[in-house]
Amino acid sequence: MAMEKEEESSTPFCKHIPNLLSSFVDTFVDFSVSGGLFLLPPPLSPPPIPTRLPQPPLLVAIGDLHGDLQKSKEALHLAGLIDAADRYVGGSTTVVQVGDVLDRGGDELKILYFLEKLKREAARSGGAILTMNGNHEIMNVEGNFICATEQGVEEFRVWYEWFRIGNEMKSLCNGLEKPWDPMEGLPSSFRGVRKEFQDGLRARVAALRPNGPISKRFLMPNATVLVVGDSVFVHGGLLPEHTSYGLEKINSEVQDWINGCAG
Q1: Contact assessment for residue 212 and residue 183, using Cβ atoms and an 8 Å cutoff
Q2: What's the CA gap between 20 and 244, in Å, rounded?
Q3: Rounded distance, CA 239 to CA 208, Å?
Q4: 136 annotated active-site
Q5: What is the largest CA-CA distance in the chain?
Q6: Is the separation of the CB atoms in 133 and 222 below 8 Å?
Q7: Residue 197: is it exposed, middle or buried by C-beta count within 10 angstroms (0-12/13-18/19+)?
Q8: Cβ neighbours of 56 (radius 10 Å)
């Protein structure tokens, strides 16, 4: 009887604040995974991918970051874009990061979160940080982890542990729908992978496959081809047939694929 009363009293409370509770849990998980960044969850519907933008007062391009958070920050410091406290100080500068954040390092997720933080700070200052997908982002969405490191696999294992804890917290509230488990449909193990890496590899697949939580949040909004003023940015080159096909169409189709809407 006491349990029934507790459920009855908690349910109306949860029904009034499901979005607030869910947002709190997501922020808690993000803080734990990102290395201590407080970030509000991103909008449910991200803005359209920009393909052509006007010439900014100052344009800075940054290349492959490959999971090295310290070197990424050093590059941003050298460009005068962040201060000693890692806050954006680039003013109206437009920064293009041309992809390849993933692989070869152990701070892939931390860099993705850090860039998201800087994007928001830059927007408030009249600047912009534009991120793109490189071949390593595409490889990871495809499930090709040949360049992933042990530290990178471990980072994704830890991410899933926090994601799972967040789902358990949400499931305690009757006013919220049952959280989706990104591991759904994945095999329990992968042939040829050592036992100590199985959980991390499953987490990496779950996070980065089409419509995965990480690919959808951080990679799906990225451009594949970007024109800023009279500069064209693309990772790996652009052929005449690509321009004939249509740059906007390329961006749209890659976005749909990462979003799980197209083969």
Answers
A1: no
A2: 46
A3: 28
A4: yes
A5: 73
A6: yes
A7: middle
A8: 16
- For 150, the token pair is 């042990």
Please give the chain's pLDDT, 263 residues, in tens.
444 444 444 555 555 567 788 889 999 999 999 999 999 888 878 788 999 999 999 999 999 999 999 999 999 999 999 999 999 999 999 999 999 999 999 999 999 999 999 999 999 999 999 999 999 999 999 999 999 999 999 999 999 999 999 999 999 887 788 899 999 999 999 999 999 999 999 999 999 999 999 999 999 999 999 999 999 999 989 999 999 999 999 999 999 999 999 65
Helix, strand counts (H, E) of the chain:
10, 6
Catalytic residue (one of 16, 77, 136, 242): 136
Q: CA 86 to CA 207: how far, in whole Å?
A: 26
Is residue 183 exposed (0-12), middle (13-18) or buried (19+ Cβ within 10 Å)?
A: middle
Q: Name the fold adopted by 40-258.
A: Purple Acid Phosphatase; chain A, domain 2 (3.60.21)
CB atoms within 10 A of CB 119: 19
Answering whether pTM is above 0.85, one says yes
Question: What is the rounded CA–CA span in Å between residue 80 and residue 51?
Answer: 26
Name the DSSP letter for residue 88: B
- How far, in Å, CA of 132 to CA of 135, rounded? 10
Would you give the DSSP letter of residue 216? I
- Between the two ends of the chain, the Cα-to-Cα distance in Å is 52
Q: Report the C-alpha gap between 145 and 23 in whole angstroms.
A: 31
